[in-house]
């Protein structure tokens, strides 16, 4: 367990992770754009297209942070619930986007969602699943609240398949990212955790296996930016498995 009270560690204690995100909330989106070299916006567009929101749908956007991804979904006319377990992120999201039509903000734990069964046509989570201390439990909860036939879209950091690109990516994360984070963020230590959590997170194939294990069907993924990020997609079966 880290002794620094301003950052989480790989134990992913919910109160420490939540507190860390509370602290970085005001500058979070701007810092992410700089650290990702602008790719975060491209990843968000790819995720929105995979969700394919439509008017009349109800969509749960988990780990929504300040709601940047949720706003894009709500623009389609879908009813969007932006959920995050960081009160600071929710407060910042409401400050920025509280007046957006069809968008509401809810504080929620991904492992114990405060929603009824089959409540959403689609559930999505971007760059948040690896911060959950029990990700398999979260995948089961997402299945519970998704309507039969509904979709799940996960955008998460992953592992480049090319050894050469993987080496360059490690160099950037280990040497460049910490320097930029110290310049941009009010809590540079949080980005040390970011680095650790990316290295510790399973690869594309393993996460796909977790999805199937949780009960999701038609599981598929595609790499974005050479595998730095993977976009995972799945559906809730129309008929619950027997037994």
Automatic annotation (TrEMBL):
Signal peptide: none annotated. It comes from Microbacterium pullorum. Pathway: Quinol/quinone metabolism; menaquinone biosynthesis; menaquinol from 1,4-dihydroxy-2-naphthoate: step 2/2. This is Demethylmenaquinone methyltransferase. GO terms for molecular function: methyltransferase activity. It holds the Pfam family Ubie_methyltran. GO terms for biological process: methylation. The keyword Transferase applies. InterPro entries: SAM-dependent_MTases_sf, UbiE/COQ5_MeTrFase, UbiE/COQ5_MeTrFase_CS. PANTHER family: 2-METHOXY-6-POLYPRENYL-1,4-BENZOQUINOL METHYLASE, MITOCHONDRIAL (PTHR43591:SF24), METHYLTRANSFERASE (PTHR43591). The keyword S-adenosyl-L-methionine applies. It comes from the Bacteria. Its EC number is 2.1.1.163. Keywords: Menaquinone biosynthesis, Methyltransferase, S-adenosyl-L-methionine, Transferase. Methyltransferase required for the conversion of demethylmenaquinol (DMKH2) to menaquinol (MKH2). S-adenosyl-L-methionine binds at residues 66, 84, 109-110, 126. Belongs to the class I-like SAM-binding methyltransferase superfamily. MenG/UbiE family. CDD domains: AdoMet_MTases. It catalyses: a 2-demethylmenaquinol + S-adenosyl-L-methionine = a menaquinol + S-adenosyl-L-homocysteine + H(+). It is an enzyme of class 2 (transferase).
């Amino acid at each position: 367990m880290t002794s620094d009270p301003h950052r989480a560690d790989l134990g992913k204690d919910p109160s420490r992770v939540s507190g860390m995100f509370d602290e970085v909330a005001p500058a979070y989106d701007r810092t992410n754009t700089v650290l990702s070299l602008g790719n975060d916006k491209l990843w968000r567009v790819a995720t929105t297209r995979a969700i394919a929101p439509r008017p009349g749908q109800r969509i749960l956007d988990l780990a929504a942070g300040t709601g940047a991804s949720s706003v894009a979904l709500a623009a389609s006319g879908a009813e969007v619930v932006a959920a995050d377990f960081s009160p600071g992120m929710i407060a910042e999201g409401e400050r920025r986007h509280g007046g957006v039509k069809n968008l509401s903000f809810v504080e929620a734990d991904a492992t114990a969602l405060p929603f009824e069964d089959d409540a959403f046509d689609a559930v999505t989570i971007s760059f948040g699943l690896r911060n959950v201390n029990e990700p398999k439990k979260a995948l089961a909860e997402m299945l519970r609240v998704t309507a039969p036939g509904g979709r799940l879209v996960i955008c998460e950091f992953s592992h480049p398949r090319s050894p050469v690109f993987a080496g360059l990516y490690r160099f950037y994360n280990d040497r460049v990212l910490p320097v930029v984070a110290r310049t941009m963020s009010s809590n540079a230590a949080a980005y040390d955790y970011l680095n650790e959590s990316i290295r510790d997170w399973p690869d594309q194939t393993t996460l796909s296996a977790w999805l199937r294990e949780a009960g999701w069907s038609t599981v598929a993924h595609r790499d974005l930016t050479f595998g730095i990020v993977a976009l995972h997609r799945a559906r809730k079966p129309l008929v619950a498995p027997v037994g």
